[in-house]
Amino acid sequence: MDTTEQLRQDRAALQLINPAPYNAEAPPEALVGEITPTALHYVRSNFPLPEHDGTLAIGGAVDNPLTLTLDDLRAMPPHEHTVTLECAGNGRLQMRPLPTGEPWGDYAVSTARWRGARLSDVLALAQPASAGVAVRFTGADHGAYHLTPVLPDIDRDDLAFERALPLGLAADPASDILIAYEMNGGPLPEDHGAPFRLVVPHWYAVASVKWLARIDVLTEEFAGEFQTGHYIFEWTDRPPEPVAIMRVRARITSPAAGAVIPAGPCTVRGKAWTGNGPIERVEVSLTGAGEWYPAQLEPPSGPYHWQEWSYEWDASAVGRHTLRVRATDAAGNIQPEQPDWNRLGYGNNAVEVIYVDVV
Ligand SMILES: Nc1nc2c(c(=O)[nH]1)N[C@H]1C(S)=C(S)[C@@H](COP(=O)(O)O)O[C@H]1N2
Ligand SMILES: [Mo]
Fold first, then answer.
1. CA of 191 to the centre of ligand 1 (A)
2. Strand ranges, E, within 287-334
3. Mind listing the pLDDT tens digit for each residue in 238-247?
4. Pairing of strands 78-86, 279-285
């Protein structure tokens, strides 16, 4: 099959947000199972699909610079984690005033099984210098980037996608950061960063650099466009903060929004996730007022992905009903009723409301 046909098939089940660069939401079914099938996983790319030469260079402030191929990565001890990835811009469309940026609805979130080499193992081979403070990851993708200029001194006509993490986090085996080459048991698709990508559990997915081409240990903080220009919470009432750990959020997956259901008992189901895991409590509100009833929360089946919850609802009264759900995480964070507005529209985790008609 040629690449164009492969891409067409890979993209057929998604909801288009932008054809170029290609951005697409998952369909609602993507949230139903524990794992999102690869064909239903949302895609977010800042630039056109790149050419990747198949190598990963590790350099900067390291004692042993090296270049690895896919085969080299495969020869290292494999690690597999199920990880929920959410775009920091997910839910932007619900914010008022509407921020600039891709108009994501609520489905730029998915969960996949990622397999690859551990970033900490790769860094250990390169031996970071003691003066190292951060690690910069460079994707092979690049291009013109003229959105609301923030940083003055960069070449906006040809910018690469680059993000950094603290060296302490990147080099720690316990952070379980992967250089993934498989997704849900198959090879990594083009749109998801082939031949290999970073997967950073618990972080908004901007940290999970696709088409990974270079890793550099830096002796000072990185200040690139995607680090300090975009992917920053610019609040109205407090100092700016970089987008980092995913905020707590719950979603209703069944019944579907707007569904027509027969009167009688109805099991309401959904997912809840957070970067400060696990989820501690999920509550449902049936009245639109301040009454919240505890849902049944399933224990996490892994540390890095969404948890299932359910609620036995006595849907005996005919008519239109609102359903709301909110989650609280282990750090005590609870979802707000209103989006926490910020200029670039990141991190919307406001309480979801749907209605269903009981007949
Ligand atoms: N190289 C590169 N990596 C990237 C991006 C990108 O534009 N280029 N987008 C990031 C963002 S903002 C998100 S939300 C995730 C999306 O990953 P997915 O397309 O596999 O869902 O990739 C991240 N990694
Ligand atoms: Mo994103």
1. 9
2. 293-294, 296-297, 307-315, 319-329
3. 999 999 999 9
4. unpaired
pLDDT at 147: 77
**Residue owning tokens 């959105």:** 147
> In angstroms, what is the span from residue 213 Cα to ligand 1's centroid?
14
Cα–ligand 1 centroid distance for 322 (angstroms): 34
Best of 23, 40, 46, 113 for a ligand 1 pocket test (most atoms within 8 Å of beta carbon): 46
pLDDT bracket for residue 104 (50, 70, 90): very high
Domains of the chain: 3-242 (3.90.420.10), 249-358 (2.60.40.650)
Nearest Cα to Cα of residue 272 among 45, 73, 34, 64: 34
Query: Measured from the CA of 193, which atom of ligand 1 is nearest?
Result: 20
pTM over 0.90: yes
Say which amino acid occupies 55. T
Please write the tens of the pLDDT for every residue from 120-132.
999 999 999 999 9
For a ligand 1 pocket test, name from 31, 51, 210 the mutation site with the most ligand atoms within 8 angstroms of its C-beta.
210
From the centroid of its chain, how far is CA 240? 21
**Residue nearest atom 5 in ligand 1 by C-alpha distance:** 45
Which tens digit of pLDDT belongs to each residue from 282-330? 999 998 888 999 999 999 999 999 999 999 999 999 999 999 999 999 9
